[in-house]
Write a structure and sequence with these properties.
It is a single chain. The protein has 531 residues and is of the alpha+beta class. It has 16 helices and 17 strands. A hairpin with a 2-residue loop joins strand 1 and strand 2. Helix 1 packs across helix 2, helix 2 packs across helix 5 and helix 6 runs antiparallel to helix 9.
């Protein structure tokens, strides 16, 4: 059987026409006989050439070990401490501010008349702000909630995760933080119900939902903290994650997990360079004798005076004694070293090759890589702003996006559950009235409940390099028709400049103006002429 001129199953054979033959070219013929080779199958794991990539490793995170190593790096590495502290300062700042944003259109659509949303926003934001600034908002009453938020963020990013517990007792709502290192699994790993199991200290049901946390107290003594409050139907305990590895893992990872080894090597390199510089600085003199030298020392006269000798010249000391004595004298009087070299010898530092990086290049290059892995621009992390306008603007916009993303994550994980519990308490105690809330709570109408709980938490953003250029660029995008339209609100501008609360500012300004009028101070129109 022939297919495309090849004989299937036969021996490969191709016959070519005899070029010396008198047979006309169009009558030339040949028979091609061959076989199809069988393709072989190979699993592809990313390695094309054997041994190039190395063995496959299925990492199973050691959460305890990673947590301890991360905290060790925070204490030992100035790079790690600088980056993590700056990260916390920019994301949480002095504590994020609540912006209540109930979905009024949705509520009105489903038949709930909620016309006084601005009045609700004012009162709930004011109450939350007062509570967040009070030491009574924390379980141990040692610090206000705003400080607690910074601690939660820092510990989650460095350690991997933090247990957050919400407590309401005797009319007081408090927040407690517990280091995730204290989570542990009791003997047997069985939860309260037969279907539950405990994994890494977290009790989960068959769906993987967190049911309770087991806090290790001593030996096999654990405290079981349920995640949900049955009466409030809200979270009363949850994990605040720094980062997560993969689906199915219920514990958090430190954000510097991939950089721990690099940080250690950088610190060793830095210490070696500093130590080398220190040792070099200790060497004050070298007495080098060339091959033609008589091994005398230029300090011979001083040595003679020190010994109280007035004669004898250099013969008073042997050449070795003279050099050794001056070396000892230098060490004793200046805490530095002097070396009396033997004839033809010389001390030189160990040469690492022409391609050796300078300390600055090595240190900054690796620090920049670590910053990138965490997600913070190096110039922000180290407060170095010496780039061009375009480069600085790109870094600013990138960091602005990171801040926005991280704050959304912090809101969803940390602030939103706390605000939901806080709001529920305010309603139950009759301090805030929301139409339809209690009925929705009784009937488990999550749509109404989530519409009322909708919020965001804000803080200062990274300032623009040249804000006027940014505004002009946005004006140009809008065109002529919108050239007089406002691009922001007083509230947003106050937020951007971190000038406090806009409503409080207006109220205070109004009181000050009224007081000025009462004291006979008339309002004057001030005209600022262009220079």
């Amino acid at each position: 059987m022939k297919i495309l001129g090849f004989e299937i199953g036969g021996k490969s054979k191709i016959e070519t026409p005899n070029l010396t033959s008198t047979t006309p070219k169009n009558e030339a013929s040949f028979e091609a006989v061959g076989s199809w080779g069988r393709a072989y199958t190979k699993s592809f794991d990313g390695e094309k050439n054997f041994g190039e990539v190395g063995p496959i490793i299925n990492y199973r995170p050691d959460y305890i070990g990673l947590r301890y190593r991360s905290w060790q790096a925070y204490l030992e590495s100035d790079i790690a401490k600088t980056i993590l502290n700056r990260f916390s300062v920019w994301i949480i700042d002095k504590g994020l501010r609540l912006e209540a944003e109930p979905k009024t259109k949705l509520l009105n659509k489903i038949g709930i008349n909620f016309s006084d949303s601005e009045g609700f926003n004012d009162i709930i934001e004011s109450r939350f702000s007062v509570w967040a600034k009070s030491n009574l908002s924390s379980y141990d009453e040692n610090q206000p909630f705003n400080e607690l938020a910074k601690e939660a963020f820092k510990n989650a990013k460095i350690g991997g995760d933090v247990v957050v517990i919400l407590r309401y007792k005797d009319g007081k709502f408090t927040v407690q933080l517990i280091d995730g290192a204290h989570l542990g699994s009791p003997f047997g790993n069985k939860g309260a119900n037969d279907g539950n199991k405990i994994i890494n200290g977290i009790e989960v049901d068959e769906k993987g939902k967190h049911i309770a946390y087991h806090i290790h107290k001593s030996l096999n003594n654990y405290e079981r903290i349920e995640c949900y409050n049955e009466s409030a139907k809200l979270k009363q305990a949850f994990l605040f994650y720094g980062s997560k590895y993969r689906l199915g893992d219920n514990r958090g990872l430190p954000i510097i997990s991939t950089s721990i080894e690099s940080l250690k090597k950088i610190e060793r390199y830095k210490e070696a360079e500093i130590g080398n510089a220190e040792e070099i600085a200790k060497v004050a003199y070298q007495i080098i004798h060339q091959a033609f030298s008589d091994e005398s020392t230029p300090f011979m006269n001083q040595m003679l005076k020190m010994e109280g000798s007035n004669g004898g010249g250099q013969d008073a000391f042997s050449t070795d004694d003279a050099g050794n004595k001056i070396a000892t004298s230098v060490t004793a009087t200046t805490n530095k070293q002097a070396f009396n070299m033997t004839r033809g010898s010389k001390i030189e530092p160990l040469n690492h090759g022409n391609g050796k990086l300078s300390f600055k290049e090595f240190y900054q290059t690796n620090a920049n890589v670590i910053c990138a892995s965490i997600g913070i621009p190096p110039n922000v992390a180290f407060s170095i702003y010496n780039d061009s306008f375009s480069a600085s603007r790109t870094a600013t916009k990138d960091w602005e996006h990171t801040i926005s993303f991280e704050r959304d994550d912090v809101t969803n994980q940390f602030y939103a559950p706390i605000y939901a519990f806080f709001l529920h308490i305010q309603i139950i105690e009759g301090l805030v009235n929301l139409p339809g809330y209690l009925a929705a709570h009784k009937n488990d109408n999550y749509l109404v409940l989530e519409a009322y709980r909708n919020c965001r938490f804000t803080g200062p953003m990274f300032p623009h390099i040249d804000p006027l250029k940014e505004v002009k660029a946005e004006r140009a995008k809008l065109g002529k028709l919108a050239e007089n339209m406002p691009l922001t609100t007083l509230e947003k501008s106050t937020e951007t400049l971190y000038g406090g609360d806009s409503r409080s500012n207006m109220e205070q300004f109004g009181r000050e103006m009224q007081e000025a009028i009462n004291n006979g101070i008339e309002e004057e129109q001030i005209v600022i002429e262009d220079e």
